[in-house]
Design a protein that fits this description.
about 160 residues, five-stranded mixed beta sheet
Length: about 160
């Protein structure tokens, strides 16, 4: 494997620009692997998670469903949007949620979706979906810690309201 720009440029079809791009990508990968777990933000409360999610996902014009993947100490591993729906609906299945969680070796997840209507009150479908995910998480050994419903400025935590399942 080539380890310097000169070695990369010796490969047919790789010029100085492509060699620099490859070296930059390798450096980014190295830095990602060396990142100290203690440097990741800790999301221990629903308010912490909402503060992390609201700026990016709260005011979306269509409903989006995603997950926050956390390690055993509730430090952020990754935030993913899994489905993009319509004005009032987004379809998601446990297989997509837990495939991503298992691949990231997450100990726990927080489900989230936005309500473009600006009302964070959970619907009956939201509560049924949450219970399905909690049950699937129990089978998978991955804790569903909460389900947050976001609007542009507010959120509802199903854990805080006792509706987690």
């Amino acid at each position: 494997m080539a380890s310097t720009q000169d070695e990369l440029r010796a490969v047919p079809g790789v010029g100085p620009v492509r060699a620099a791009q490859v070296m930059a990508a390798l450096e980014l990968g190295r830095r990602t692997l060396l990142r100290n777990p203690a440097d990741r933000i800790q999301l221990g409360t629903p308010r912490d998670v909402a503060s992390h999610l609201l700026p990016e996902f709260g005011a979306r014009p269509v409903e989006q469903f995603g997950i926050v993947l956390l390690d055993a100490k509730h430090r952020l591993l990754k935030t993913l949007v899994l489905t993009v729906g319509t004005l009032d609906r987004s379809v998601v299945h446990p297989r997509e949620v837990f495939r991503e969680a298992a691949a990231a070796r997450a100990a726990g997840i927080v489900l989230f979706h936005n309500h473009p209507s600006s009302d964070p009150t959970p619907s009956a479908d939201d509560i049924v979906l949450t219970r399905r995910m909690v049950e699937a998480g129990e089978l998978m050994g991955i804790d569903v810690l909460d389900h947050l419903i976001l609007t542009s400025t507010r959120y509802c935590s199903l854990r805080e309201t006792g509706q987690l399942g």
